Amino acid sequence: MALVSNILTQVFITLISVVGVYVLTGLTGMFSLGQAAFMAIGSYASGLLVVKGGMALAPAIVLAVLMTTLVGYLVGYPVVRLRRDYISLVTLGFGEAIAALLNRMTSLTGGASGFTGIPRRTTLLLAAVSAVAAIILVAFFKTSKYGRQCIALRGDELAAKAMGINVTRVKMTAFLLSVALTAYSGCLYAFYMSYVDPSGFGWKKSADWVIMVFFGGVNSLTGSTLGAFILSALPQVLRGLQNYRYVIYAVLVLLIINFKPSGLLGEWELTPRNLARTARSLGRKFGTRKETH
Prior knowledge:
A two-stranded antiparallel ribbon has the order 1-2. The protein has 13 helices and 2 strands; from the N terminus they run H-H-H-H-H-E-H-H-H-H-E-H-H-H-H. It has helices spanning 2-28, 35-51, 57-79, 84-104, 106-109, 124-143, 145-155, 157-162, 167-193, 203-216, 221-237, 245-259, 272-292, and strands spanning 115-116, 195-196. It starts with a helix and ends with a helix. By secondary structure, the chain is mainly alpha-helical. It has one domain (2-267): ABC transporter involved in vitamin B12 uptake, BtuC, CATH 1.10.3470.
């Protein structure tokens, strides 16, 4: 039971970060290979505020998320004006710079040895409720004016500008929401693991989240959620195959590219209307089969 609780808690924490990546990649088409750096900033900031600042958990998390979002604004202000391929390169460099900085701040963060002594406050219930809240928040964002504008500029930025959409502002809004969600997942991670170190927030973690989004369906929040559940739980369940994690990921991605290029769910979303439509479709299909028999 403890093992299942541990797996689910880590899956829910990862899910929050993946939902943040979906906002960035699925809605706007931007790629960030330094997204894990914002998770690191959230983790370290909240841990330091509680352990060395003596602050209560809730205000520490709020302040850590705000601090990380401010850093995200400073990074995103010039970045969102770049071409999409350059954005991935700049964020990759930013992520590696943060990891190097954390490694050198020995007196404050413990350097390469990591930061210990963080109280374990994150529970399965807190992680689950936070994940559900993050999904609901992003679902509302997707259907909002900003969400629709994000989808419009993802298809064609020039056409979006011609329609009067402030592309830079919309991209910045999506970027900051993504940063805030990732920072919050970092806070939960720190107070669950009770230990953080720079090696856990490299570009590979950011790449993992992007893979999860594409695996489930880059155009579907439901698909991205499903992809996060499958690919984050898989290494935990198959601990004996931990060394072959990226081989398994590569095989799964190749299968998806060849047989389901748009991801497991494509653009399908879990909504009452889509559920009713699917139920009617299945009803007609099985009804037709019975008549033929």
